[in-house]
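Slide 14.
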Amino acid sequence: MADPQQRRSAGDAKAGETSSVSVTGLSKSYGGAGSLRALDDFTLEFGAGQCTVLLGPSGCGKTTVLRSIAGLITPDSGRIAIGGTAVFDAAFGTCDPPEKRRLGMVFQSYALWPHLSVADNVGYPLAASGMPKAEIRPLVESMLEWVSLGGMGGRYVHELSGGQQQRVSLARAVVGNPRAILFDEPLSNLDARLRERMRLELLGLRQRRPFTSIYVTHDQLEAMTLGDRVVVMRAGKIEQVGSPEDVYKRPRTRFAADFMGIPNLIEGRLRATGPDGFVVDTVLGPLRARGWRTGRTVGESCTVALRPTLLACSPDIGAGAPLGRVIRSVFQGTSTIHMIDVAGTTITIESFSEERHGDGMTVRVTPAEGAVFALLDD
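Slide 15: predicted structure.
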């Protein structure tokens, strides 16, 4: 049976405990000699009360990090601490089982019991800990109100929509007052409109009751919406970490720029350097670029990233930027995507104006302030 302190903490929705999670030197391989290295000396501090999003393509190691923290995977080396206390330390043979780590987890598949009512699903962690039913009931009712499912405790899972099932899964993860909540691509099974609504709902829930969360996704928009910090991962390592705005507006590498939805990676040659950045000669003419690197040499080659939303194309009306030809124009409702061929290089522009340029039309491409960034790994 749970002790009185555990019961009080589980039921105190306002004074809920939330802890930092520290991961140091985590490595994990599969398959023996010459095996796939899923994690390669991964080190990161997940701040208490923050939402840290692990973002990257399939196979980059983000889910391995999450499951290692949860205790569902045993790493080969490294250390994991929750609230300053080690729950895994390969050097000392420490490896607490999942149930002792006091973490909540929201799965992609919801993982709800179909034979239990909504209330029983939410209250399952409390019942498993030995808490009396009379104490569980008000906690469950409070959680259902929190996720906007008040009065629906008597229903069964098959009677709920996908979005409602996901809220039940979240309520179950939170009800036991975990030290952190882990999200494993929880919205990927929802349709586009419901997914958008659930992103905003989840953001609102976190704002009303902050908790430490580690969120895994391959969806850039999801990462931008929910994350206090975004960690772009590649091949078991961190490619870039920063605020959503920082990672999107100031990508450090080709991989980060491409994964954050910046398709325009253009080769150029450095013309000049200065305190505010660089001037790079490209197919679009000389471009002023900010960047991460110092010590560049005039004349060396470099790569610049051009954000498609800060580029404009206009009909050829005389001298100015180099000419291009519209390869394709795609209307997307709120914006139009123009793909422009400039001297054999394809430039993608996302325009929010009402004006559309037909295929084959001759246009000039011009960047706005802040559109161009020099990358680290050219």
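Speaker note: Confidence is low (pLDDT under 50) at residues 1-16.
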